[in-house]
Amino acid sequence: MSNPINTRIVLAARPSGEPDASHFRLERLPVPAPGPGQVLLRNRYLSLDPYMRGRMDAGRSYSPPVAIDDVMEGRTVGEVLESRHPGFAVGDQVVATGGWQTFVVVDGDAITRRLDGMTLPISTALGVYGMPGFTAYAGLHEIGKPQPGETLVVAAASGPVGATVGQIAKMRGARTVGIAGGEAKRRYLETIGFDVALDHRADDFSEQLRAAVPDGIDVYFENVGGKVFDAVVPLLNDFARIPVCGTIATYNARGQVLPGPDRLPGFFSQILRQRLSVRGFIQRDFIDLFPRFLEEMGQWLADGRIQYREDVVEGLENAPEAFFGLLKGRNFGKLVVKLD
Ligand code: NAP
Questions:
Q1: pTM for this prediction
Q2: Within a 10 A sphere around the Cβ of 181, how many other Cβ atoms?
Q3: Domains of the chain, with CATH numbers?
Q4: Ligand 1 close to Cβ of residue 244 (< 6 A)
Q5: Ligand 1 pocket test, candidate residues 224, 250, 258, most atoms within 8 A of CB
Q6: Residues paired with residue 154 on neighbouring β-strands, in sequence order
Q7: Residue-wise pLDDT tens digits, 95-146
């Protein structure tokens, strides 16, 4: 490489509410050299995910926040440019926590996934065939447990988690109701096999959902919270399961007391009366299932039994704007940034 430069985006300030361009800063620095046991990667794809909004906040969570002036965290698919680790050679493709930048040096021992012999597009290792797809698989396997004839509801259903939840539940024999924002996404849900597809922006969304689940809801895979959750709660059946995967509707409001009546005592009472199972999870809680996921999902994708959609943004400099869009539903499919 002649005069190699690493372009990177760092966290410049912590947002209160919605993030904007002032919270990020683009920097250009010399590409670092790998030390013993390390590899230099050229990041080819960066995954943009809703959890990154949480990393911008200080305070306790399941992972520490990104420090001010540090590179924004993110999974990447990268190619080995230089290796000082015996397990990696130039040209190997791997999944790493490479961050919002074009090059990264990582410890070889910290790389958990190689993409040797991958026949699918490598970007899928960040989506349906990576962390989000695994989230759907593990959340259903361990908590949702849809049974034949049961009704499952999921929102953010055109995204990599929701779309995969719907398609796996359908394979398990459940009746599936997918919820998304806008008519184009709603129609897409019908093409990937949801039995009913609804637009949460419709004025009569709650009534539409009630009509869509005449036998009630047995599994509500919680991705969003907000008004979708409000519409689901009265429709839950006894012994319903709620894997709490994400609450994106309130990611910009963390730590704030939201307006409106306090529904918590009523919901706790409902959990008791209806013997509901409500369990939050982070996908890595179930990491022992990952090899089995790779095998099963690889087969389903090869057979065309699972379909997916990607939303590819070109260029690292466009990552912040794409990320703001993700929090507002402007993405359509798994959001990745192509860095080549
Ligand atoms: P995604 O669907 O690609 O993108 C997020 C989607 O959320 C948006 O496109 C938008 O879709 C929807 N959304 C945003 N604000 C909303 C609101 N106020 N009400 C309803 N929907 C809203 O994202 P993803 O990567 O598949 O993730 C889906 C959820 O899973 C997120 O909550 C994420 O944090 C969570 N997650 C959790 C884990 C875990 O380990 N627990 C792992 C991965 C992801 P519409 O336009 O359709 O509304």
A1: 0.97
A2: 20
A3: 5-127+309-338 (3.90.180.10), 131-285 (3.40.50.720)
A4: no
A5: 224
A6: 178, 221
A7: 999 999 999 999 999 998 999 889 999 999 999 999 999 999 999 999 999 9
